[in-house]
Amino acid sequence: MGQYKVCVYAICKNEEKFVDGWMDSMGEADLVVVLDTGSTDDTVERLKKRGAQVTVELISPWRFDVARNRSLDLVSEDTDICVCTDLDEVFHPGCGRRWRRPGRTGPPSGLPLYLELQRRRLRGTVFWIEKIHARRGYRWTHPVHEVLERQEAGTGAEVHSGGGAVGPPRRPRQSRGQYLPLLELSVAEAPEDDRNTHYLGREYLFYGRWDD
Predict the structure, then answer these.
(1) 33-56: per-residue pLDDT in tens?
(2) Rounded Cα distance, 55 and 89, in Å
C-alpha cells in the first residue's frame, strides 16, 4: 500500500462488540495482528473473518507489558512501522497515509511517535501517547499502565504522528480488581518511577486506603 509496511498490533479479551468498528478503521494498515488472551465469546472468530491474524495465548501471571511484548513478537520482521492500539479505539481516516509519509531518515528509528488519542468521555481533551514505533529496538515495560521504551542506544526526534484515534467511552462496570496488585508490583520493581507511584496512590484513593 505504500513505501513503508504498516502493521497494527493489539491484545484483547472478550471484545466481540468492538471488532467490526475496529477492523473498519484498520483498512489502511498492511497487516493486523492480534493476541487474544483467552476470550470466551466470538472475538477470535470475528477477527479472523475480518482478516486479522489472531494468536490465542494465556499470559500467566498476567502482566500488561508481557502481553504487549508478546503481541509485538507476532509482528513480522519486515514491518517498517508498528502501531499499537486497543480494540475499543478507532483510527481517523487518513492515518495510514500520514504514517507512511517519508521522513528524512525513513520510518521511525529514534524515539517512538505520538498517537493523538481523544477520549470520548472527556470531550475536547486530547492525549498524546507513544504507540507508533519501528519493529526493532522497542519493548513495553511495567506490569500495568505500561509504557513503550527504547532498548537500543541512540536518539531521535520526538514527532507527532499527524494521525489520531478516538478512544473508548467510560466502562462503569469494568472491574479494577487486577490493577491494585499490579501497581504494587510495578512500584516494587521501579520504586523511583514517579508515574506509577502516582497511579498507585490514586488506586489507594479509590479503595479508601487513606493511610497507604
Answers:
(1) 999 999 999 999 999 999 999 999
(2) 20
